[in-house]
Amino acid sequence: MGFLEITGGLFKGRKIKTVDDSRTRYTPSLVRKAIFDVFDVEGTTFADVFAGSGIVGFEALSRGAKSVTMVDISKRAVKAILQNAGALGVKERIRVMQIDFRKALKALSHDLPDFMFLDPPFNGGYVEEILNFVQLTPPFRVALILEASKHESKRVPRPPSAEIRRYGDIWLWIFHR
After folding, report:
1. Which listed site, 14, 56, 115, 175, has its alpha carbon 20 to 30 Å from 64?
2. Residue 17 placed within a domain
3. Which of the 8 DSSP states describes residue 91?
4. What pLDDT sits at residue 136?
């Protein structure tokens, strides 16, 4: 198990534990910083889907989000999220959903977060499925950010409403309301 460092805000420099699972991939600090340089999340609600350790959700809290919903199907991920929330003293500001992302997206569509970040496993075929869902039932109020590999992003048709930002082999698909 390793550590990740929060890149900005109230908890800048604080370390959080990673998930004890070699299959978990983390959003690089450069990309996390870029997301929060673009989006002002102060006073908003935020959802971190495929949350892993919760690093993106904790970045949102660090930068002033009032609450974060973190979704991951993995028991190990949920354990890491809860430990990290305790260490940061933010348990009362998070909600954790240990369910499949499809069920979470449907559930969240009844109580839309302002911002939603999704970071599915790369090259798992999730990007097209998520894009289809987002176009039919946008599960957010302000913006949705979908992190995907360059390889998978190139294979998927780009919806006209999507803005794409590239960070090396990572592409962010951004949708605004």
Report:
1. 175
2. no
3. G
4. 87
Residue 13 lies in a domain: no
Q: Cα separations (Å) of 99 from 88, 103, 111, 150? A: 24, 7, 16, 27
Residue 170: per-residue pLDDT: 95
Number of structural domains the chain divides into = 1
Q: Looking at the chain, how many residues does it have?
A: 177
The residue to which tokens 């289809």 are assigned: 132
Nearest to 84 by CA among 65, 121, 58: 58
153 contact partners, CB below 8 Å, separation of at least 6: 127, 164, 171, 173
Strand partners, 119: none
Regions of the chain short of the pLDDT cut 50 = none
| 117-163 tens-digit pLDDT | 999 988 788 999 999 998 888 999 999 999 999 999 999 888 888 99
